[in-house]
């Protein structure tokens, strides 16, 4: 039997550790990722009172859906939905999680919106998926989500008849180079919605940069603990600065990432 539970202070650790592979639970980098997730989740719980739901079988968390309320747009944004283990696939667990979230919205259990209820669910799915498992895009599309513009992974589900979601244009924040950024590397870390961000993306940045230059000074800036240093640069968690230049290539695109790092270093 599958039981859906809201994430609260009592089971927040289940959420923080949910996405960590069993083989990585003693890995210092993943433990740091969990600490970042714990800080983020605690803050979100205080801010909006609800941030995720977990599906349990035999007291074990087997599925999750995580979300944020974007009040100024009148939407609930789904960060992630995931059922990681194959033995729990095709059992309706993800559907139960989504329906539980929809029930909360319809019953105004997730509130703060000007009109009393969210106008839409919105998500941007990560391309790809595990072999033999529906991708997140396929799952949401089957549930009636519609594409936003030309990006097939950017989807919305209207909660009112005739509503069409149009994203608000966000003011672009431009990196403000600082004199002290010359001749060094800065990687911006901090509280994060995903425990994989630190080990899988940020530490990978460090690794790829070290393959190019083993001696350049490298500094980590925590956005929550060194907020002034981060804000004055106009950067955010996940950004990487090399020799006073913001690296724009995605780190998983190793070739272009390192090409941009080389260019920033004048190599």
From TrEMBL:
Residues 2-170 form the N-acetyltransferase domain. SUPFAM superfamilies: Acyl-CoA N-acyltransferases (Nat). GO terms for molecular function: acyltransferase activity, transferring groups other than amino-acyl groups. Pfam families: Acetyltransf_1. Keywords: Transferase. This is GNAT family N-acetyltransferase. The keyword ATP-binding does not apply. The keyword Transferase applies. It comes from the Bacteria.
């Amino acid at each position: 039997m599958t039981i859906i539970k809201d994430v609260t202070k009592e089971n927040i650790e289940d959420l923080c550790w949910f996405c960590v592979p069993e083989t990585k639970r003693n890995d210092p980098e993943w433990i740091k990722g969990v600490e970042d997730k714990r800080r983020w989740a605690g803050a979100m719980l205080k801010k909006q009172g609800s941030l995720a739901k977990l599906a349990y079988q035999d007291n074990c968390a087997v599925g999750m859906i995580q979300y944020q309320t974007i009040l100024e747009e009148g939407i609930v944004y789904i960060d992630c939905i995931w059922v990681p283990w194959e033995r729990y696939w095709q059992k309706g667990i993800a559907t139960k999680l989504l329906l539980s979230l929809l029930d909360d919205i319809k019953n105004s259990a997730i509130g703060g919106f000007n009109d009393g209820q969210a106008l839409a669910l919105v998500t941007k799915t990560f391309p790809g998926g595990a072999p033999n498992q529906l991708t997140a895009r396929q799952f949401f599309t089957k549930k009636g989500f519609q594409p936003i513009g030309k990006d097939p992974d950017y989807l919305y589900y209207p909660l009112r008849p005739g509503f069409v979601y149009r994203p608000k244009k966000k003011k672009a924040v431009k990196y403000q180079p600082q004199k002290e950024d010359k001749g060094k590397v800065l990687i911006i870390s901090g509280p994060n919605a995903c425990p994989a961000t630190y080990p899988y993306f940020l530490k990978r940045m460090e690794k790829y940069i070290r393959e190019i230059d083993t001696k350049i000074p490298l500094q980590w800036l925590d956005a929550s603990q060194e907020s002034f240093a981060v804000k004055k640069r106009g950067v955010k968690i996940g950004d990487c600065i090399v020799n006073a230049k913001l690296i724009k290539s995605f780190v998983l695109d190793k070739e272009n990432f390192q090409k941009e790092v080389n260019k920033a270093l004048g190599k």
